[in-house]
Design goal:
By secondary structure, the chain is α+β, with helices and mostly antiparallel strands. It has one domain. It is built from one helix and five strands, in the order βββββα. The protein has a five-stranded antiparallel sheet. A hairpin with a 2-residue loop joins strand 2 and strand 3.
Length: 86
Amino acid sequence: MMNIELHTVLTLDDNEKYIVVAKAEHDGNAYDYLLQLSADGEDVTEQVAVVKEEKEDNRLYIVEVNDKNELDRLAPLFCKQLEELQ
């Protein structure tokens, strides 16, 4: 089974490519903060996504997080990590 690491490029259901720029764990679940890559893959856009890693039958799936309460709980974890990178 593959692990998702920082700087991994993922393709979401919208067929757009995103790069993992931060990771967090909350309540035993792994989450990734993603920035969308430009069409040429050289830059990032302002589009962001948060995904939850789910493992089932020895396979890894990612599910986009859209619940505002869940995003509010995760935001401080990602912000702290992103501040450390600057």
